[in-house]
Hints:
Bound molecules: tryptophan
Radius of gyration: 22 Å
CATH class of the largest domain: Alpha Beta
Shape: elongated
Strand order of the largest sheet: 1-2-3
Helix content: 40-55%
Distance between the termini: 33 Å
Order of helices and strands: EHEHEHHHHEHEHHHHH
CATH topology of the largest domain: Rossmann fold
CATH superfamily of the largest domain: HUPs
Structural class: mainly alpha
Number of helices: 12
Amino acid sequence: MSRIFSGIQPSGELHIGNYLGAVQNWVRLQEGRDATFFCVVDLHALTGNYEPSDLRRRRHEMAVSLLAAGLDPERCTLFFQSGVPQHAELAWIFNTVTPLGELERQTQYKDKSARQESVLTGVLTYPVLQAADILLYHATRVPVGEDQVQHLELSREIARRWNHRFAAETPYFPEPQPLLTPVRRLMGLDGQAKMSKSLGNTIGLLETREQIWEKLRPAMTDPARIRRTDPGNPDVCNIYSLHKAFSDEPTQAIAAANCRGAAWGCIDCKKVLAESMETVLVPIRRRAADIGARPSYVTDVLEEGAKRARTIAQDTMRQVYERMGLTD
Ligand code: TRP
């Protein structure tokens, strides 16, 4: 049996973009044969400016979202990174085998540091902690988006270097491979940029039907449809891309035909989309409400997950210390 690991930033409530791009796939993966580990990476979240009270809220909301989205503690190990101290411990160990140049070459580091005068060391060593996340569990497959491929490459390099130095005969750490999520990159409702919380162009996974409609109604569609009688092109319409994510195939086909033939106005099309979204989101909202009604549920479930994770992590650290001369 092999292991799958992935992490997500504690960014608060999931939006439909993260849900469709990552978490929906995690929910599918937990049904498979491999053991799955999903981690809210709260230690990674310290590398920027943040308010402690804000982080406390965001990590909780992320945990609620993940459970509401369908991660099932009976089928996967779900936990907060900070609940398993071995993540930070192994990251230190990996710092000692990671060349500075490799870190300085990471695009994410270059992007982030270019925008700042003073750069925190944590921004530089971020991918070392990420390698520790994965390798603590000997995970071989890591569901991520395109933007994490370089970090994964570095995780493999770190595994190789550590193995070469401390486990030359039989490699101890595996080389984890990205499992590229078939991402439907959702554009934001403004139709201008990728859906992202910081741009405020998202729909939250737990928003109500009314809140969603408030956002859909004015959302950007094919700019060629100025009048209702103007035929449209679904392939350039953002609302149609949401149909592809939320509507069943017959509904998608009807929406496309009625857009091309100008049989529907954009508002008609949005109303049908809102119905399709309800079908997907109602059970998610219901789970969130159930969770909200049980005050210590989230804490208990994630602590249970951390406990399971710690058992494995402790064993890994024992082996690591043994091979590195840190035991008697
Ligand atoms: N860096 C990832 C992101 O920003 C989050 C992450 C942290 C992660 N540790 C991980 C993803 C380990 C996969 C595996 O999305």
